Amino acid sequence: MSQMIPAWIDDRLVPVDKIEVHRRGLRHPAVSVFLLHDGHLLLQRRAVGKYHTPGLWANACCTHPAWGEAPGDCARRRLREELGLEGIELHQRGQITYRAALDRGLTEHEVAEIFIGDPGGFVDARPDPAEVSQTRWVPLAELTAQLAATPERYAPWLRIYLTQHRAQILDG
């Protein structure tokens, strides 16, 4: 099923098919959510049926807002849709623009609105199996070591976020 998302073409934001956005590496708005509790970050493992980076570990959720959808509304919607989580207060941590090569000849070129929240405990997610195959809470120090030792197990954007923008995201 095709999904239209906003993307910049000739400095104008226009609706473009999501897969075409990634094929052409077009710059587009995105949302990334991090859930942090007691020094642990919630990770999700992308479902094997995803059209890019299947089976890789990523932050709580990442997505593309629908046309006209506010980033905060989008972040809350995707937490509910992907992980079955609701009622978590999210705080915006600004924007991060990055470009990353994905698998299957695709490119991610996002202007991501970053959100962070503390669910108040090590909540159990109820993931949609079409989106997420597994979740786990990982201590930040352990995640840092894992990213260095086995970067191929993690989504390119998570590696970028935590190696180049960690202070902005986690220290706010």
Helix-strand layout with pairing:
Blueprint: E1 4-9, E2 12-17, H1 18-24, E3 28-37, E4 40-46, E5 57-59, E6 61-63, H2 71-83, E7 90-101, E8 107-117, E9 132-139, H3 140-149, H4 156-164, H5 166-171
Parallel strand pairs: 3-8
Antiparallel strand pairs: 1-2, 3-4, 3-6, 4-5, 4-9, 7-8
Written overview of the protein:
It contains five helices and nine strands. The chain has one domain: Nucleoside Triphosphate Pyrophosphohydrolase (Alpha-Beta Complex). It has 172 residues and is α+β, with helices and mostly antiparallel strands. The model has no long low-confidence stretch (mean pLDDT 96). The protein is globular, with a radius of gyration of 15 Å. Strand 1 and strand 2 form a beta hairpin. The strands form two sheets. Strands 3, 4, 5, 6, 7, 8 and 9 form a seven-stranded mixed beta sheet that branches. Strands 1-2 form a two-stranded antiparallel ribbon.
Radius of gyration: 15 Å
SS class: alpha+beta
User: What about the largest sheet?
Assistant: 7 strands, mixed
Secondary structure tally, helices: 5
Please report which band the strand proportion falls in: under 5%, 5-15%, 15-25%, 25-35%, 35-45% or over 45%. Answer: 35-45%
Count of the separate structural domains? 1
- 3D shape: globular
What is the number of E strands? 9
Q: In CATH terms, what is the architecture?
A: Alpha-Beta Complex
Report the uncertain regions: none
Series of H and E elements: EEHEEEEHEEEHHH
The CATH topology, please? Nucleoside Triphosphate Pyrophosphohydrolase
Mean pLDDT equals 96
Amino- and carboxy-terminal Cα gap: 37 Å
At the first level of CATH, the class is Alpha Beta
CATH homologous superfamily classification: Nucleoside Triphosphate Pyrophosphohydrolase
Helix percentage range: 25-40%
